[in-house]
Automatic annotation (TrEMBL):
Domain Xaa-Pro dipeptidyl-peptidase C-terminal residues, every copy: 71-331
Protein name: Xaa-Pro dipeptidyl-peptidase C-terminal domain-containing protein
Pfam assignment, any one: PepX_C
Example of a GO MF term: dipeptidyl-peptidase activity
Species classification: Bacteria, Pseudomonadati, Bacteroidota, Cytophagia, Cytophagales
Length: 336
């Protein structure tokens, strides 16, 4: 049984890919995936009210996991017949939008359907494909990077925890962050499975990072819950980060053979975000933000290609204009 947390800032990649690798290479092996609304290892301790950043998921969720999933697994294999007939599902996952557990006979779910969202140069997140002629652009300055969080106190700790569901309004207001969003949803939309960003970009520099964030935008009448940890935050119009990932552009084609960008050339940058199970509720919006700095979660890219960024000189850190073309897409898996 592989257990993980959707907000594991240390290793979200690990449990998801351990499960998938076992499925691929060890057919017939007992293999169960459990993903809850937890940070790294937080399913082992009960906090009463289960929160991450400002988001409240319910009460006693770790206790539910321990009693109904973990104990059942160990009782079967340590005290029971150990034949693999635990009665547990193949995948026991928490929907971080509906805030409830769901079960599946495989992951990604067999019923998942691929949907493509295009990044329109109007700022719309749409299912209408772009022609590749339109674009949005921004100036990226490594001396003025986009911070990964608005709560600077968290940067002093060993691991940043809260940013993975933090309100992204602070970032979306910046001129060096591109924002694409849908109209308010007319019905619930459940994203369940894999996410792939397929960007078409260009830059005036020779290197660049690309950060893609999937965000749940709450409606203006969203009430606060009773356990708000920060009384200065309002959930009305809250922009909850659901998933995010960064790609260092030099590694876009190979992690073994980095290569620079050619200034002005339209270039493919394709990379995976980690899986999600999140329902965007009726009245909410789906948002994508694209940026090129995320400091200090990732180090600054000079934007001038150098063999070793850690040995870059001060003069190597240069402003660059980045473009994201309207035939850029984010592919998601949708559950009906």
């Amino acid at each position: 049984m592989t257990v993980g947390g959707w907000f594991d800032a240390e290793d979200l990649y690990g449990p998801l890919n351990v499960y998938k690798t076992l499925e691929k290479n060890n057919a017939g092996t007992y293999n169960t995936l459990v993903m809850g609304p937890f940070g790294h290892g937080r399913w082992s301790q009960e906090t009463g009210h289960t929160l991450h950043s400002n988001i409240y998921f319910g009460d006693s969720i770790a206790t539910f996991y321990q009693k109904n999933i973990e104990a059942r697994f160990f009782n079967h294999f340590l005290k029971g017949p150990g034949d693999g007939k635990t009665g547990l599902p193949e995948a026991y996952l928490f929907d971080t939008g509906r805030k409830e557990w769901k079960t599946f006979d495989q992951w990604p779910a067999s019923a998942a359907q691929t949907r493509t969202f295009s990044l329109s140069n109007s700022g719309q997140l749409t299912q209408q494909a772009g022609d590749g002629q339109g674009f949005l652009e921004f100036i990226s300055d490594p001396l003025k990077p986009v911070p990964y969080t608005e709560d600077l106190s968290t940067t002093a700790s060993f691991t940043p925890f809260n940013y993975m569901s933090e309100d992204q309004r602070f970032a979306g207001k910046r001129p060096d962050v591109l924002v694409f969003q849908t109209d308010p949803l007319t019905e619930d939309l459940t994203l369940g499975g894999e996410i792939t960003a397929k960007l078409k970009v260009s830059t005036t520099g020779t290197d660049a990072d690309w950060v893609v964030k999937l965000i749940d935008v709450y409606p203006p009448d969203e009430p606060n819950h009773p356990y708000m940890p920060n009384k200065n935050i309002s959930l009305a119009n809250y922009q909850q980060m659901v998933r995010s990932e960064a790609m260092r552009g030099r590694f876009r084609n190979s992690f073994e053979k980095p290569e620079p960008f050619k200034p002005g050339d339209v270039t493919d940058v394709t990379f995976r975000l980690q899986d999600v199970l999140h329902t965007f509720k009726k009245g909410h919006r789906v948002m994508i933000q694209v940026q090129s700095t995320w400091f200090p979660l990732i180090d600054r890219n000079p934007q001038k290609y150098v063999d070793n960024i850690f040995k870059a000189n001060a003069e190597d850190f240069q402003k660059a204009t980045h473009r994201v073309y309207n035939n850029s897409v984010v592919e998601v898996q949708v559950l009906k």
